[in-house]
Design goal:
Elements: H1 2-50, H2 81-101, H3 112-122, H4 137-150, H5 155-198, H6 206-209, H7 213-228, H8 235-246, H9 250-260, H10 277-288, H11 291-312, H12 316-327, E1 336-342, E2 349-355, H13 356-371, H14 379-385, H15 389-420, H16 433-465
Antiparallel strand pairs: 1-2
Helix pairs in contact: 1-2, 1-5, 2-4, 3-5, 5-7, 5-8, 7-8, 8-9, 10-15, 10-16, 11-13, 11-15, 11-16, 15-16
Length: 472
C-alpha cells in the first residue's frame, strides 16, 4: 500500500507540473503558431481573390462560429474547383480567426474531443505535402489554383505563395506535435483524477479493492459517475490503471507514466557569436566609397569656379602672352591660389598656396579610388578585402587624415572663389557648403567605424591579458 501511495503522490505532482507547463509554455506557443498560420492564409486568400482565381464569400461575415467546425474535404468536379475551394478556404480562414481570437488554449478547455477536432481542422489542407498530385481533394485543388495564379505573377506574389506553404507547414507541424503530447497528457490526467477522486473517496474500500483486479474495477465503476460527473467511463484507461496496480510489469509501467509527464526544460545555450573584426574595418572602407559622388560634385564646382576666374583674366594682354608662349613653345605657368586656411578647433588662420592643377589631379585620383569601394563586389573592394587587417586600418587612418586636410583646403577655396571674383560674377560662383557638410558627415561615419573597430580590438586584447576568452 505504501508503494501505491508513493506513486500516486509522484503522479499527482507530475500532473500539476505538466499542466502548468502546457498552460504557460506549450499552449501559448500553439496559439502563436495558429496566428502565424492565420496570417499566411489571409494573405493567400486575398491574393487569390485579387487575381480573380476565386471569388470572395459574400456570406462570410454572416456566419456565426461558436465551435470548431471542420470544412468539407470531399471530391468535386474540375469545373467546381474554383468555387468549392474558394468557399472551403474562406471557411478555413474563419475557423483560424475563431481559434486566434475566441478559443481558449488551456489544459482545462482543450480536452481529448477538442484535440481531435483541432487535428482534423489542421488536416484540411496538407501544407507539408502541398502538390497538385495530393490525394486529398482540398490540398490538390488549392495547389492547382495556386499554380494557375503563379502564371505571370509578380515576384512579391510568388514569394507570398512560397512563404505561405513553407511557414504554414512548419506552424502546423509544431501545433500537431504539441496536440499529440497534450493528448497523451489528457489520458494520464483522466487516470490521475480517477486515482485522486475515486481512490481517496470515503466510500472506496482500499482493503477490498487491492485484493484483485475485479474488486478494484467494481468499486471504480460504482464510484466513478459520482466523483467525475459528466466524464464518461473510459474502459481502456481504467484497464491501464489496473495494470499499473496488479500486473507483473507494474513498476515499469509506472516509470513509463512518470517519464511521459516529465517537463521538457529547453536549455538555452548562450551562443557567443564570433565577431568578424575584418568585416568591421571593411565597413569603414565601404563608407569611404560614399565620398565618390560628393567628390564628383565638388570637383565639378571647383572647375567651374576656376573657369569663371580664368575668364576674368582673358584681357588683350593675357591673349598676347598666350600667343607668345605658343610661338616659343613655352609651358603655361602653374595656376596657384593663395588661400586662408582656418583651424576650426583653435581659430588660427594661415596662408596656404594651392596649385590648382595638382589639387584637381589629386582629387580625381582620390575619386577613382573611393569609387572602387562603393560596391562590395567591385574589384577594388575585393582587393582591399584580401589585405591583412592591420594594413587596412593603416589605410583607413591615412585616408581619414588626408581627407581632413582636403576638407580644410576645400573650405578655404570656397571662401576664396567667393571673394576673388569680380562683383559682376559673384552670383555665378557655385558654393560648396552643402557638399562639404555631406563630406564631413561621411568622414564622421568613417571615423566612427574605425573607432569601434579599434575599441573592440583593444577590449579583446585586455580580456586576453586577464585570461578571459569568448569561449567561456
Amino acid at each position: 500500500m505504501g508503494s501505491q501511495d508513493n506513486f500516486s503522490a509522484q503522479l499527482l505532482q507530475a500532473l500539476d507540473a505538466k499542466s502548468s507547463w502546457f498552460d504557460t509554455v506549450a499552449l501559448p506557443k500553439v496559439l502563436e503558431n495558429y496566428r502565424l498560420h492565420s496570417s499566411c492564409v489571409q494573405n493567400l486568400l486575398s491574393a487569390l481573390i485579387k487575381k480573380s482565381i476565386i471569388q470572395a464569400d459574400p456570406y462570410k461575415h454572416d456566419k456565426k462560429i461558436s465551435n470548431i467546425i471542420i470544412p468539407e474535404n470531399t471530391e468535386f468536379s474540375e469545373g467546381e474547383r474554383a468555387s468549392v475551394i474558394g468557399l472551403r478556404l474562406s471557411d478555413y480562414d474563419s475557423m483560424l480567426d475563431f481559434l486566434c481570437n475566441y478559443f481558449k488554449f488551456s489544459v482545462s478547455h482543450v480536452d481529448l474531443n477538442r484535440i481531435n477536432k483541432l487535428l482534423a481542422l489542421n488536416n484540411t489542407f496538407q501544407w507539408d505535402s502541398f502538390t497538385v498530385n495530393n490525394p486529398k481533394p482540398n490540398t490538390r485543388g488549392l495547389a492547382t489554383l495556386m499554380a494557375q495564379a503563379r502564371s505571370g505573377a509578380d515576384p512579391l506574389t510568388l514569394s507570398l505563395f512560397s512563404d505561405t506553404v513553407s511557414k504554414s507547414a512548419r506552424a502546423i507541424d509544431e501545433i500537431n506535435a504539441t496536440l499529440a503530447e497534450l493528448s497523451v497528457f489528457q489520458r494520464e490526467m483522466y487516470k490521475g483524477q480517477v486515482r485522486k477522486n475515486v481512490f481517496e473517496h470515503p466510500a472506496f474500500d482500499k482493503d477490498a479493492a487491492y485484493k484483485n483486479e475485479g474488486a478494484m474495477l467494481e468499486q471504480i465503476k460504482k464510484l466513478l459517475p459520482a466523483v467525475l460527473g459528466k466524464k464518461s467511463y473510459n474502459a481502456d484507461l481504467v484497464k491501464e490503471i489496473l495494470e499499473e496496480e496488479f500486473s507483473a510489469q507494474k513498476e515499469a509501467k509506472r516509470a513509463e507514466v512518470l517519464r511521459k509527464l516529465e517537463v521538457r526544460v529547453e536549455r538555452k545555450v548562450k551562443k557567443v557569436e564570433k565577431v568578424d573584426t575584418k568585416a568591421m574595418i571593411l565597413d569603414a572602407i565601404h563608407l569611404l566609397g560614399a565620398l565618390s559622388p560628393q567628390l564628383t560634385t565638388v570637383i565639378e564646382k571647383v572647375n567651374f569656379n576656376h573657369n569663371v576666374l580664368e575668364n576674368e583674366k582673358n584681357t588683350f594682354f593675357d591673349k598676347l602672352k598666350t600667343i607668345f608662349r605658343r610661338a616659343f613653345n613655352l609651358s603655361e605657368p602653374p595656376t596657384v591660389y593663395e588661400v586662408i586656411e582656418v583651424d576650426k578647433s583653435t581659430g588660427q588662420r594661415r596662408k596656404v598656396t594651392i596649385n590648382y592643377h595638382d589639387f584637381i589631379s589629386n582629387m580625381n585620383r582620390r575619386l577613382r579610388v573611393y569609387s572602387s569601394f562603393s560596391q562590395k563586389n567591385s574589384p577594388g573592394y575585393q582587393r582591399v578585402s584580401g589585405i591583412e587587417e592591420a594594413k587596412i586600418l593603416d589605410f583607413v587612418q591615412k585616408q581619414s587624415s588626408e581627407c581632413k586636410s582636403l576638407f580644410v583646403q576645400l573650405n578655404a577655396l570656397d571662401e576664396y572663389f567667393k571673394t576673388a571674383c569680380n562683383p559682376s560674377n559673384k552670383s555665378r560662383i557655385k558654393g560648396m557648403k552643402i557638399d562639404l557638410a555631406a563630406m564631413k558627415n561621411t568622414l564622421i561615419n568613417v571615423n566612427q567605424k574605425r573607432g569601434e573597430y579599434c575599441a573592440y580590438i583593444e577590449e579583446q586584447t585586455q580580456m586576453r591579458k586577464l585570461g578571459i576568452t569568448d569561449d567561456e
